[in-house]
Amino acid sequence: MNNTTRLLISISFFMLAFGTSASRVFAVSENITQLNFTTAPQTIDANATSTVITIQTQNATSSLEKVSGTTTLNLTSTSATGEFSSNSTNWIAVATLTMSTNSANRSFYYRDTTAGTHTLTVTASVGGVAREWTPATQAIVITGTRVAPTISVASSSVLYTGSAQSAIVSGSVPGVVSNIAYNASTTTPIDAGTYAVTADFAPDDSANYDALTSAPAGDFVIGRAALTVTPDNHTKTEGEIFSAFTGVIDGIKGSDALAARYASGGASADAPVGSYEITATLDDPDSRLGNYDLVYRVGTLEVSAPAAPAPEALPPAAPPAEPAVSSPPPPASRGGGRRRSPVVVVPVTPAVAASPAQGQVLGASVGPLTRAQAGSLVEFLRSFGVDQSIIDRVREVTHI
Question: N or C: which end of the chain has fewer CB within 10 A?
Fold first, then answer.
């Protein structure tokens, strides 16, 4: 009798001795192929605790099979906020549970704060080594009041730039914003003004938050830009017409076609001497001025008197004339008649007849007589009884 035969005979006697109980001993865990939930799927409120959930080890025919040693059950949920516990009243969150030797069932509880349908999964391992059993999976529905998110304009105020500017819209929860409209138009605004913004919103967490369509997000304001016009200061002479105005426009945005025109009350030829304001206005062919806060500054036009003409030059003085020689007086008449006054010629240069307007004094230039000679001439004239008017004239022209 060989060893194999002896083994078979021994097994046969063992089976006859212990009957069906022996078959149960050999079937403790060798036939486990899967894990299954034996309780039905549940629907619970958010933050509520489920009723008991039971997991079972089974064979290929879904019949109960006990584990042969301590086995670890690994619990997971597709919801990041889901929790497991072995006790519903004294809640301690766990990620694993232990099945004792020669057991086939293990119970636990579940709760979650996130509404939606989530999947619970249970796997098994022994000593940290995963068992090749089919995991158990089951859906659980968490219900709750769905929340309507809100959206708002993050960049509510900007300044006019001459180009299109978009509002930045964000949601109160993570999600995607689309179809932004401004005063019910999908055209991105350029001009200064206040625009009522609406948009669509799709929350990432669609289980707990509603999607939004054309929801109000607030106002988007494009403020007016500052624009300053400063005329340059200028001068002109009275009697001239002035038109060469210049100046600076500071703050034009984009391609706005704005041009300044300048004017002053002192620009005309008949404007008297003085200071005049230079003012400015803007030409706006494309109606863009509504996008600006305007500041018009004032320049100055100084009107001055013309320069005085230079005085005319006087002609050069003529050379002095040769002194005239007077004829000796004729002898007195023996008849005792009245003596005739001698005729005296006083040499006078042409300057004697010059006009006082030319800056000359009548008689300021005489012949080459010295003062002593002129005095002698006056005495000579008196000795001949010359009229006093003639003597005075001689004194006048000779300055004695």
Answer: N
Alpha carbon 129 to chain centroid, angstroms: 64
Pairing of strands 299-304, 234-237: parallel
Contact between 99 and 71 under an 8 Å Cβ cutoff? The reply is yes
DSSP summary character for residue 134: B
How many other C-beta atoms lie within 10 A of the C-beta of residue 259? 11
What is the model's pTM?
Answer: 0.48
More confident residue, 147 or 107: 107
Question: Which residues does 373 contact at the CB level (< 8 Å), separation at least 6?
Answer: none
For residue 28, give the H/E element and its range: none
Whole-number pLDDT of residue 14: 44
Question: Are the CB atoms for 189 and 204 separated by under 8 Å?
Answer: no
For 187-234, the pLDDT digits (tens) are 999 999 999 999 999 999 887 788 999 999 999 999 999 999 999 999
Q: Which of 225, 220, 195, 194 is nearest to 289 (CA)?
A: 225
Residue 13 has a pLDDT of 47
- Can you list the positions of beta strands (E) in 4-62? 34-37, 42-45, 53-58
